[in-house]
Design goal:
Elements lengths: L5 H11 L7 E6 L8 E11 L2 E17 L4 E13 L1 H4 L4 H15 L4 E13 L11 E12 L9 H16 L24
Antiparallel strand pairs: 1-2, 2-3, 3-4, 4-6, 5-6
Length: 197
């Protein structure tokens, strides 16, 4: 970090100082090495009564020279996973709804961003043989990236982007919105019981 450019160091410090809702446990993790000259990564899990409701990873990338595909020098990349109730997994609108949660989380905090891209994948697992005692499981996975617009000193508001990402993570986990009185948010119902690994 000592040799990293000042805008990247400032962006990382803002991530480290962000306050999150108590259900979210977050910690730094090893970032990918070849996506950009500089990278910082966080892992998070939404826990309620020691149950893992959803987990995810957020990676901050920085290329001081800029990146044509990003249309900027910073990029945020995420992976979020959560277990689903089987009836939710069959909803044909689920991928569109999950993508709208991502863009809505950014827009609700008034964050300028560009070049969003990603996938929403749902998968079902059925267990056989020695694993046949496990119930069938369904999972949603959101992989996405976007360019946070840079502010003063060429530094994006990474603290607010992290907060909006945690809003998305909480929503996918089925938690009620953190802001009281926000009845416009629809969340996935929580899945009870241990998550199969």
């Amino acid at each position: 970090m000592e040799t990293a450019p000042l805008p990247f160091r400032a962006a990382v410090e803002a991530l480290r100082g962000t306050r999150l809702r108590p259900e979210i446990e977050i910690e730094p993790t090893r970032p990918p090495q070849r996506l950009a000259p500089y990278a910082y990564a966080l892992e998070a899990a939404v826990l309620e009564e020691d149950e893992d409701l959803a987990d995810g990873r957020l990676i901050l990338l920085h290329d001081p020279a800029g990146h044509e595909a990003w249309q900027g020098s910073f990029r945020l990349v995420t992976l979020i996973r959560a277990e689903l109730e089987p009836e939710m997994a069959t909803d044909p609108l689920l991928p569109d709804v999950c993508w709208s949660w991502l863009t809505g989380a950014l827009q609700s905090r008034g964050l300028p961003y560009g070049e969003p891209s990603g996938t929403v994948t749902r998968a079902s697992s059925h267990y056989f043989g020695g694993l046949s005692s496990r119930p069938a499981a369904s999972q949603i996975e959101i992989r996405a990236s976007w360019t946070p617009r840079e502010g003063l000193g060429g530094v994006p508001d990474t603290a607010s982007h992290l907060a909006s990402w945690c809003d998305l993570l909480s929503q996918v986990a089925g938690l009620p919105p953190a802001a009281p009185g926000d009845a416009s948010v629809v969340t996935l119902p929580q899945r009870r019981g241990p998550r199969p690994r």
